[in-house]
Amino acid sequence: MTHEPDGAPRLRADDPATLPAPGPQDGQWKGLDPRYIRVRVISEVIGYLIFAAAVGWPLVLKLVGVWGEASWWAVLPWPLGVAVLCLVQVLLTPRRVRSYGYREDADDFMVRKGLLVRTLVVVPYGRMQYVDVSSGPILRMFGLSSITLHTASAETDAELPGITAEEARRLRERLTERGEARLIEL
């Protein structure tokens, strides 16, 4: 592991030992808004309800008597499986949301995420092409937005979901200013 001039370990995406663990590390990392947990739970439940409707029609036909002779074991596994998957996803959502973090350094903007597979995306300010702020209907209900940093390489694009609309606007302005300043230096 290499170190910065100030003695802090250098973060390297190709060395998993240097990737920060989920959760606050040193006060510089900021997390997502806690309301984003509810946004994710609502989105997960809606998605699984649609999936349950798609795979649950045999159970509905059995319940209304159209498939009266069908075995319960033939119609129950899929809807029960969907319910279990939904429950697992909902239970994991708070931890997944807490695994997100972002940090503004002098030269880079960093986004980290992941529980089992940790990912650190480092976007140099000079490589940013533009910054998107978006907010879908569920995010808007909770006063939240998502911000996406675009670069020339799709691999270094970074998305930060679930931050307040005010923080998204502040980040967009600040990152745009820093990106323009870095381009002038080049």
Automatic annotation (TrEMBL):
<feature type="transmembrane region" description="Helical">
    <location>
        <begin position="45"/>
        <end position="64"/>
    </location>
</feature>
<feature type="transmembrane region" description="Helical">
    <location>
        <begin position="70"/>
        <end position="92"/>
    </location>
</feature>
<dbReference type="Pfam" id="PF03703">
    <property type="entry name" value="bPH_2"/>
</dbReference>
<keyword id="KW-1133">Transmembrane helix</keyword>
<feature type="compositionally biased region" description="Basic and acidic residues">
    <location>
        <begin position="1"/>
        <end position="15"/>
    </location>
</feature>
<protein>
    <submittedName>
        <fullName>Transmembrane protein</fullName>
    </submittedName>
</protein>
<feature type="domain" description="YdbS-like PH">
    <location>
        <begin position="98"/>
        <end position="175"/>
    </location>
</feature>
<keyword id="KW-0812">Transmembrane</keyword>
<feature type="region of interest" description="Disordered">
    <location>
        <begin position="1"/>
        <end position="27"/>
    </location>
</feature>
<keyword id="KW-0472">Membrane</keyword>
<dbReference type="InterPro" id="IPR005182">
    <property type="entry name" value="YdbS-like_PH"/>
</dbReference>
